[in-house]
Amino acid sequence: MAQYDVVIIGGGPGGYNGAIRAGQLGLKTAIVEGRGKLGGTCLNVGCMPSKALLHASEMFEAASGGEFAKLGIEVKPKLNLPQMMAQKAESVEALTKGVEFLMKKNKVDYIKGWGRIDGPFSQGIGKVVVKAEDGSETVLETRNIVIATGSEPTPLPGVTIDNKRIVDSTGALSLPEAPKSLIVVGAGVIGLELGSVWKRLGAEVTVVEFLDRILPGTDTEVANAFQKILTKQGFKFKLASKVTGATATDKQVQLTLEPVAGGDAETLQADYVLVAIGRRPYTQGLGLETVGIVPDKRGVIANDHYKTGVDGIWVIGDVTSGPMLAHKAEDEAVACMELIAGKAGHVNYDIIPGVIYTKPEVATVGKTEDDLKAAGVAYKVGKFPFLANSRAKINHETDGFVKVLADAKTDRILGAHAVGPNVGDMIAEICVAMEFGGASEDVARTCHPHPTRAEAFRQAAMGVEGWTMQA
Ligand SMILES: Cc1cc2nc3c(=O)[nH]c(=O)nc-3n(C[C@H](O)[C@H](O)[C@H](O)COP(=O)(O)OP(=O)(O)OC[C@H]3O[C@@H](n4cnc5c(N)ncnc54)[C@H](O)[C@@H]3O)c2cc1C
User: Fold this and answer.
1) Is residue 233 classed exposed, middle or buried when 0-12, 13-18 and 19+ CB atoms within 10 A define those classes?
2) For residues 346-361, average pLDDT
3) Mutation test of ligand 1: which of 9, 147, 149, 284 has the most ligand atoms closer than 8 Å to its C-beta?
4) Exposed/middle/buried for 101, CB within 10 Å: 0-12, 13-18, 19+?
5) Are 311 and 458 in a shared domain?
6) In total, how many domains does the chain have?
7) Mapping DSSP to helix (H, G, I), strand (E, B) and coil, where does residue 261 land?
8) Which residue in 237, 266, 329, 351 has the fewest CB atoms around it within 10 Å?
9) pLDDT tens profile 415-438
């Protein structure tokens, strides 16, 4: 008899949500986490601390950058960075403690230490060895092992992260001072979010990107509009530029780059450099070789039911293929546990939204216009600018627009893409409509409260059939 039905290795959104669902389904479950706290990248050094700093820095900028004054609120704010960092740490601590409580509530054993798979299953039972901080080892016997070990920052050749002057995302969440200048390498979600934090707190921010556009994979029209908005905010962009090296002193970093197309090299100087060129699956020390699993660039590959090539070993979250997002990890976790419990777990990969929590936000779900053009799908477009949305106008946040894409024949919604105030919250209505196989007309004919920014989504849906009404 195995001790456990499921042992999950990794305590991030994949691991802990999976553990909760497994507990609910009556599976005897253990979760193994090495970093000393549950919550994974997301709660400890990802989604949550970055959102805490985005929120606080947004407030600071509103107070200092003229936004408050325009509303008739005159204040002279003073940045207290230690307090800003302390409130971030407090929120993170509360969240990780909350996850620990949820483990207890769902009768999940939380085992602290680094887990490794220890050889092939025998008679349907596998082993996970957990090495604790004091070096002691515990062996867990289980009928199923779920790999949920997440990801780590991708290194940039020629640039050594010291997390002092040259930092990765974790370092950029805890800078000891507000820099006067910051270079962000990589114009993806993490670079633009953390670049925004420090820009709002006073830094000159230059974003260096290898490609000739920002936010690869995002709808091109939305990405281009967003770049214009960021440029208006003072961001500088060096696109199609390849970083070739970086040298740090105690006070500054010199970064060398050259045009991707060839040409003269150039040197930039800044107080700090943030390297945010992406993340890669993390499988170090996991003992995959003992069961014959060979990960590739996308991580540990599974079939569409989260099963690796080895019976009894499953994989979810950042460590396997697909978008590296907390909600994707969470949904896979739920589906995987339901499948282990003999139920019909499933994730709809056509409807995984993505949000960039800048100001304004960017939100996207489903196919982009670029995808549809490449696939030769006939589609219709409805668009609506926030300039014409009364709530956005009153709040002086008129940058951006919403775009809804629908099948030209059936009107079924194929995607929605937006840049504008709070679009990250509002994209959920399109996700629900899409999950129900909804048409743009379904959203267009759904009564929306007035005045709200959500009306921009409705108006964009109305625009698919050309009957946009608000101005
Ligand atoms: C700065 C930043 C901001 C982000 N913001 C967002 C956001 O706003 N929204 C969003 O959806 N996503 C965001 N992400 C991505 C999100 O954090 C990840 O997609 C998510 O955490 C993946 O969850 P996971 O459970 O697969 O892995 P992780 O959260 O990485 O958790 C894996 C855990 O496994 C542990 N582990 C690894 N190996 C072992 C082992 N052998 N034994 C024991 N434990 C092990 C690790 O210590 C880690 O705690 C952000 C990421 C970063 C870096």
Assistant:
1) middle
2) 97
3) 149
4) exposed
5) no
6) 3
7) coil
8) 266
9) 999 999 999 999 999 999 999 999
Closest residue by Cα to atom 8, ligand 1, is 47
User: Is 158 domain-assigned?
Assistant: no
pLDDT for the residue numbered 49: 98
| pLDDT at 101 > cutoff 90 | yes
If one residue of 42, 275, 331, 427 were mutated to test the ligand 1 pocket, choosing by the most ligand atoms within 8 A of its CB, it would be: 42
| Averaged pLDDT, 303-310 | 93
pLDDT at 66: 87
* Whether pLDDT at 216 is above 90: yes
For residues 196 and 245, state if they share a domain. Answer: yes
Active site residues: 450
Among 245, 277, 309, which residue terminates a domain?
A: 277
Tell me which residue range forms the domain holding 404.
351-464
Same domain? For 39 and 147 the reply is yes
Q: Are residues 330 and 387 in the same domain?
A: no
Cis peptide before 451 (omega within 30 of 0): yes
**φ, ψ for residue 91 (rounded to 5)?**
-65, -45
CA of 47 to the centre of ligand 1 (A): 9
Q: How far is the CA of 69 from the centre of ligand 1 (A)?
A: 39
The candidate with the shortest Cα–Cα distance to 266, out of 183, 157, 191, 169, is 183
CA of 144 to the centre of ligand 1 (A): 21
Element (H, E) at 302: none
Check whether 292 has a pLDDT greater than 80. yes
Q: What's the pLDDT at 470?
A: 67
With vertex at residue 330, the alpha carbon angle to CA 328 and CA 336, rounded to the nearest 5 degrees, is: 100
Q: Are residues 219 and 234 in the same domain?
A: yes
Q: Is residue 287 part of a domain?
A: yes
Q: What is the pLDDT of residue 448?
A: 97
Predicted TM-score (pTM) of this structure: 0.97
Token couple for 380 = 């219709």
- CATH number of the CATH domain containing 233: 3.50.50.60
Confirm if 439 and 382 have CB atoms less than 8 A apart.
no
Residue where one domain finishes, among candidates 255, 277, 299: 277
Report pLDDT for 304: 84
CA of 282 relative to ligand 1 center, distance in Å: 10
- Per-residue tokens: 207: 């974003």
Q: How far, in Å, are 65, 260, 273 from residue 247 at the CA level?
A: 33, 21, 10
**Six-digit token pair at 407?**
């099948």
What's the pLDDT tens digit per position in 149-172? Answer: 999 999 999 999 999 999 999 999
